[in-house]
Amino acid sequence: MMATHKEEVIRDFQNQYGRFKPMLGEAQKVILDSAVSEFPVFVFSKTLPELGVQLYESIDQKQDWYVHATSLEELVAKNVVDPSRIEDFKEVYKDPSSYFCILLLDGTVAQFAFPPIQGMPFSDN
User: Fold this and answer.
1) CA dihedral defined by 58, 48, 43, 10, rounded to 10 degrees?
2) Which residue, 23, 35, 24, 13, is CA-closest to 100?
3) What is the C-alpha separation between 108 and 31, in angstroms, rounded?
4) Residue 121 belongs to some domain of the structure
5) CA separation for the pair 32, 20 (Å, rounded)
6) 39, part of any domain
7) Would residue 118 count as lying in a domain?
8) pLDDT band at 46, cuts 50/70/90?
């Protein structure tokens, strides 16, 4: 059975995620400590996203990811999250001292995940 595009994107992200965790941890600490936002979000995209501040530049669009740091506030301002859904988002948002918030983008795939800082995203751990 062929994997769907979404499944392939998630698998590719999972395979690459480990090398980005130290960078995400440092960026999340800076965002929280400097009170930029209580809701940091990391955007992983195969194409250059028009969101946030670039943390990592993709060197190969097929194999690599752009990584940007943004926030719930910017996602609302840029109409990625509807203002009427802010409270819903805050309810599912997990404690940033233990979890990252990832927005995974690739073509038609746009998915949020909240992987534990110590675990693997999109899995049962």
Assistant:
1) -70
2) 24
3) 28
4) no
5) 18
6) yes
7) no
8) confident
| pLDDT confidence band for 3 (50 / 70 / 90) | low
Nearest residue to 124 (alpha-carbon basis) of 8, 24, 9, 14: 14
Contact indicator for 116, 28 with CB cutoff of 8 Å? no
d(CA 65, CA 14): 12
Task: Give the pair of three-digit tokens for residue 14.
Answer: 């999972």
CA gyration radius, the chain: 14
CA 49 to chain centre: 12
Residue 55 lies in a domain: yes
Q: Which residue has the higher pLDDT, 63 or 47?
A: 47
Provide the whole-model pTM.
0.88
- Total number of domains constituting the chain: 1
Within 13 A of 8's CA, how many CA atoms are on the CB side?
11
72: number of Cβ within 10 Å: 19
Domain residue limits at 96? 5-113
